[in-house]
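Per your request, structure below.
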């Protein structure tokens, strides 16, 4: 008897396939980024550092993709993503100066 997949199983399979494809194209960025964060924040991340740390994590993820994989995979441009995250950081920095 053929088992019918539930809607969550279908979604889970689709997401799992995408993660497998990206892992193959880019490598495992999580371990790399974790190691760099341990160097940048050896005493942990304080609450007042969270906003900057979140942007740093996103940029490090893009750097990992650039260094380890096909930077054109999936039609993405990790350099443009880095520029975008940097702009967000500048905007946040300037907003904090005005506060």
């Amino acid at each position: 008897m053929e088992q019918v997949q539930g809607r969550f199983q279908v979604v889970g399979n689709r997401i799992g396939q995408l993660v497998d494809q990206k892992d193959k194209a880019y490598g495992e960025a999580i371990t790399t980024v974790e190691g760099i964060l341990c160097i940048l924040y050896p005493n942990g991340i304080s609450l007042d550092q969270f906003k900057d740390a979140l942007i740093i994590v996103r940029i490090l993820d893009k750097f990992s993709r650039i260094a380890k994989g096909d930077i054109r995979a999936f039609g993405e441009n990790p350099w443009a993503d880095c520029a975008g995250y940097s702009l967000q950081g500048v905007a946040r920095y300037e907003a904090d100066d005005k506060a």
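Residues 48 and 88 are 17 Å apart (CA to CA).

Regards,
D.
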